[in-house]
Amino acid sequence: xxxxxxxACNGNTHSFLNYPFMEQFLNDFEFIxxxxxxxxxxxxxxxxxxxxxxxxxxxxxxxxxxxRADVLVVDIIKKYAKIVKKIVTVGTCATFGGIFKESxxxxxTGLHFDRNKPIDSFxxxxxKTISVSGCPVHPETLVNTLYxxxxxxxxxxxxxxxxxxxxxxTVHNGCTRNEYFEYKVDNHKYGELEGCMFYDHGCQAxxxxxxxxxxxxxxxxxxxRAGMPCVGCTEPTFPKENLxxxxxxxxxxQDLPIGVGKRTYxxxxxxxxxxxxxxxEKKLFDD
Length: 287
Description:
By secondary structure, the chain is of the alpha/beta class.
């Protein structure tokens, strides 16, 4: 494998290094080059020669004027795209452009998407590409995708080329605060174990496709379980402004959960107001 770093903070690299079974992984896969892990070749050798490899992983935002080892990253991608079997965009920057779209780099985008808009650059590589978004990417999502490639598993992909195995459902699915969400009992303080963070704190879990509440971080936790709103880091719209605020129109959240219409929401909200669940509200108000 070749791990190519474009305009990046290396957050995905560091997340990847937290994979709990790294020793076994490195026995099953070999990096011809990685910016942090010891590799057989230097970056200078990678760009000056064409070293045989099966998978190219791209971390970071793509730009027409960004270079590595004095060679344009787009040219390195084009060269190795001809010989690899699969290309994996690692993280939201490589997939959608991410936070570095706010930089001064020319035409800063993801490999195939500018936010949620498909672009023509590298269009010939669509059939080879798998997107693994996240800021940073969940290490188990990345590693399991690589094993699926190695074993020639036919991964089903969504419209953004992400494996449905990990991105077909939302972060809201599996959240331990779902009962609070259903009865509109909101959290009033970050870090609290009770209450939902959707209605006041801008939690993006109902709009965000990821497995954070099913495949826990460090096998222990997730943002919403720890009392932190989901920031929607796997989505093409990341990062949003005013992340920790729920914009409302006449008391109704402007953005409703995926698949829920306004009329349906109002009906459910009316029914919910008829219930008072002391068990859910007592701890919050007592505190």
